[in-house]
Write a sequence for this structure.
């Protein structure tokens, strides 16, 4: 056996035994981490411990946008959050889930403690970054990328001295931080060690969530779960490996990655276990769901394994009645099971998906056309997840939402001192961040001409030149673009480069508007099920409600559908969502505008309509103090549509805020 193979197998056993190496942040003693954080709070963020500064809470609009962005993460993490709450909620603990910046996106609290938690700022929308709160569980765990318990007076701000927080960062399969799971007790009034149970439960739950994310991200791969304890499959004691039919390891648990002597680029199943992938797959096909013991390190040691088939392979074993419920695609076939969990049963769309799958690994740029909210970004993400690049970054950038002057540095990055105001260390642009993975350029039609030339170079030569750089850098990105614009017309009008158009145009797919699809009932049911799960509710749609949803034309497409359902679920206090739970404006739109005549607001065609649209936008902006987010909400438009319309109607903001209020 080669030396490095021995090393890999030993690494596997080490990580199953609890691991030798400790993640960087954890290697530093807690007291030292807290002291460093206190220093940062004072010197870097200039916070006043006794200050009465307002806590930062996101506005309802920003929170809704954030939740939409984090929808997938929320959906996967919610069962873990609820489980943790069931364990300790009754003991006076509040559980929080935040995004990667420390903004709270979900919370569980027993009703009798709710008010007290609110007064301590433990509410959805509250920002718990270190910059906002100084030393605190969530913020400091995010800075150190490691779990942390911050007990009472260890908090920097005096107003937080009454709480004790156990915070655990949640990592995705590429080791990127996705958010934080946190439990907080109020007035624990005991010593630090009494928080050990909450801290350990949080660690265990975080491992469960990370494993759920791993399974989801690797839905189209084979996944093997390994443990040295056959009777005990806790996430702490097991390692996950995702691999393809040829036995190439595509992804693995963090514990193992940290133990491996070398990067795992070419690692195969037989590099870790005394068995070939072929034998494992044969076993899995003939004994689905049955655990297996596999020798490792020349038969001296052995590990216990469970194998999960890719979702697409489940259909094969279905006839044997052997699948587990979690792996079964919905019986009505609404979800394309191995394509990002998308709700699709429309025949044309399914055909597009079959073709996209053939192209996903061929380095051919893909162009997605479709109205706002039709699902272009979800599709782009599904393509990335289906491709061999799935464990590399997926970077999305909306060309319409960034002022022209900033697009260049956002995309290509800049070197130190490239322009006045440039960060001291320079900044890697989005293209460099996407290296190895996928770059999704939304609203490509809004990219300025000069940058189109530079994008062409990236596509043609695989090179980028950052602002202020003297030499090009090689990058390997798969590019997916999207637009609602008529690119051929833009080429005719010399607004879009012809050569770039032909490069992007090779594989073009149109995502139909929801009203054009033949699978609206299935989409409604799937999105409803997703929203109910994410709200942790067991709900049904009444036939009457479903009928109303079916009669509507959905100008805002699946996004609008999701928002309507989210609203209905939030206001429904029974188990049945009825027409009275639908938003009021939805009912009015339905009665005033029978389907055949109804036209979406943003598809107004006549000049009169255009004038009306311009006036409506200016009114909304004026009423909202030229804040883009609030105006979008008032108009019921997505940000990208809003910025596009702003340009189309030549509306110039009275102050530069309209481009700069991302933080509102
Ligand atoms: N097939 C689908 N199944 C489930 N949800 C979907 C589907 N398509 C879209 N959605 C949901 O609709 C919302 C909007 O989707 P997305 O952001 O992908 O649209 P878009 O076409 O990129 O919009 P825009 O052009 O405004 O950026 C998201 O919440 C997404 O999860």
């Amino acid at each position: 056996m080669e030396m490095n193979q021995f090393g890999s197998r030993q690494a596997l056993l080490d990580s199953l035994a609890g691991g030798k190496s400790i993640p960087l942040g954890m290697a530093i003693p807690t007291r030292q981490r807290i002291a460093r954080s206190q220093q940062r709070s004072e010197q870097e963020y200039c916070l006043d411990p006794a200050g009465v500064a307002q806590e930062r809470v996101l506005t309802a609009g920003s929170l809704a946008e954030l939740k939409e962005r984090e929808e997938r993460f929320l959906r996967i993490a919610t069962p873990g959050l609820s489980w943790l709450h069931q364990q300790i909620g009754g003991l006076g603990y509040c559980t929080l889930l935040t995004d990667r910046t420390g903004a709270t996106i979900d919370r569980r609290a027993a009703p009798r403690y709710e008010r007290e938690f609110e007064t301590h700022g433990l509410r959805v929308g509250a920002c718990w970054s270190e910059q906002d709160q100084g030393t605190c569980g969530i913020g400091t765990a995010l800075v150190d990328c490691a779990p942390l318990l911050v007990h009472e007076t260890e908090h920097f701000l005096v107003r937080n001295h009454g709480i004790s927080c156990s915070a655990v960062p949640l990592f995705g399969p590429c080791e990127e931080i996705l958010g934080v799971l946190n439990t907080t007790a109020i007035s624990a009034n005991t010593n630090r060690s009494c928080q050990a149970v909450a801290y350990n439960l949080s660690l265990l739950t975080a491992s469960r969530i990370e494993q759920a994310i791993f399974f989801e991200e690797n839905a189209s791969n084979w996944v093997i779960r390994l443990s040295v304890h056959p009777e005990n499959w806790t996430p702490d004691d097991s390692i996950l490996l995702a691999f393809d039919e040829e036995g190439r390891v595509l992804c693995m648990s963090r514990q193992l990655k940290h133990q491996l002597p070398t990067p795992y680029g070419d690692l195969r199943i037989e590099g870790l276990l005394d068995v070939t992938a072929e034998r494992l797959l044969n076993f899995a096909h003939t004994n689905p769901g049955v655990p297996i013991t596999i020798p490792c390190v020349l038969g001296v040691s052995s590990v216990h394994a469970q194998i999960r088939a890719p979702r697409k392979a489940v259909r094969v074993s279905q006839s044997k009645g052997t699948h587990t419920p979690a792996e079964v695609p919905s019986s009505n076939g609404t979800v394309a099971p191995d394509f990002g969990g998308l709700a699709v049963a429309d025949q044309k769309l399914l055909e597009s998906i079959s073709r996209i799958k053939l192209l996903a690994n061929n380095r051919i740029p893909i162009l997605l056309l479709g109205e706002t909210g039709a699902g272009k970004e979800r599709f782009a993400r599904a393509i990335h997840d289906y491709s061999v690049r799935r464990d590399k970054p997926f970077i999305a950038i909306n060309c319409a939402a960034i002022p022209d002057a900033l697009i260049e540095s956002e995309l290509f990055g800049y070197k130190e001192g490239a322009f006045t105001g440039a960060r001291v260390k320079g900044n890697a642009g989005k293209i460099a961040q996407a290296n190895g993975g996928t770059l999704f350029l939304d609203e490509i039609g809004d990219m300025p001409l000069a940058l189109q030339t530079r994008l062409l170079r990236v596509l043609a030569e695989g090179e980028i030149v950052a602002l202020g750089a003297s030499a090009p850098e090689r990058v390997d990105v798969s590019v997916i673009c999207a637009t609602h614009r008529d690119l051929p017309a833009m080429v005719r009008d010399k607004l879009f480069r012809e050569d770039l158009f032909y490069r992007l145009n090779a594989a073009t797919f149109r995502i139909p508007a929801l009203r054009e699809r033949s699978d609206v009932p299935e989409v409604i049911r799937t999105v409803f099920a997703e929203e109910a799960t994410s709200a942790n509710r067991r709900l049904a749609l009444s036939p009457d409600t479903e009928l109303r949803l079916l009669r509507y034309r959905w100008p805002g497409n699946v996004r609008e559908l999701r928002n309507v359902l989210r609203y209905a679920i939030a206001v429904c206090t029974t188990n049945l969502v009825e027409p009275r739970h639908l938003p009021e404006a939805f009912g009015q739109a339905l009665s005033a505008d029978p389907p055949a005549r109804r036209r979406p607001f943003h598809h107004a065609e006549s000049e009169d309509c255009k004038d009306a649209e311009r006036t409506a936008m200016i009114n909304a902006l004026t009423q909202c103090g030229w804040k883009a987010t609030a105006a979008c909400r008032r108009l019921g438009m997505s940000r990208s549509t809003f910025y596009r319309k702003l340009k189309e109607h030549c509306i110039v903001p009275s102050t530069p805020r309209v481009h700069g209020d991302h933080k509102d």
In short: DSSP finds 28 helices and 21 strands in the chain. The longest helix spans residues 196-217. The domain at 514-592 is CATH 1.10.8.60 (Helicase, Ruva Protein; domain 3). Residues 68, 71, 342-344, 370, 372-378, 442, 527, 558-559, 562, 638, 640-641 surround adenosine-5'-triphosphate (CB under 6 Å).
